[in-house]
Amino acid sequence: MSTIPRLRKPKPPQVSRALTPATIPDDAWADEKTLKAMLYEGTDFSGAQIYACDVEESRLEAVRLSNASLEQVIISDAVIERCDFANVQGRDVSLLQSSLEGCRLMGSAWSDGLFRDLVFSECRMDLSRYRQSKLRQVVFERCDLRQADFQWAELTHVRFSGCDLTAAQFANARMSSVLFENCILDGVGGVTGLKGATVQSQDLTSLAPSLAHELGITLAD
């Protein structure tokens, strides 16, 4: 009988109790700037190019960052709700000890990033990419991860629960204490990259054709 791995739970964000409503341009995300205990509501940073900005202990609601370019940006201890990160190009970005609910990340790319102590809940993340990023103590709950790209990523203590991972890619991924439960795994690529993960038995049926293909096994009718 298989054993469900004991996963480390993400640490909850420690958001400041006294948040200052952001005013633009004074509190805009900008190069080499540190912003702490801020409340951003409906702020539009679409298309911005931001380098080495730190956002700490803050709340983001309906913030738009679509098509932005982020490099060496650190977001920590943040509650992020209904925000738009679609098509963000992120390099060496750190997203730490935060929660994201109802956010849009489709088409976003996060290379060489660090994702630690995070909960993604009911987020649209199809076609998002995490190549060569490190994911540690991360939970994905009821997320759309169709065609997401985890190639060459390192996943440690990660749980996918109730997610659609149709045609997601895992080639050369490294996994330790990773759980897939109640997920759709049709057409997953690079299934050998799932070595070390635990897949609930009811999810294995949708994974079987991809596994057979990679092993050169022909399935007869």
TrEMBL record:
Higher taxonomy: Bacteria, Bacillati, Actinomycetota, Actinomycetes, Kineosporiales
InterPro entries: 5peptide_repeat, PA_immunity-related
Protein name: Pentapeptide repeat-containing protein
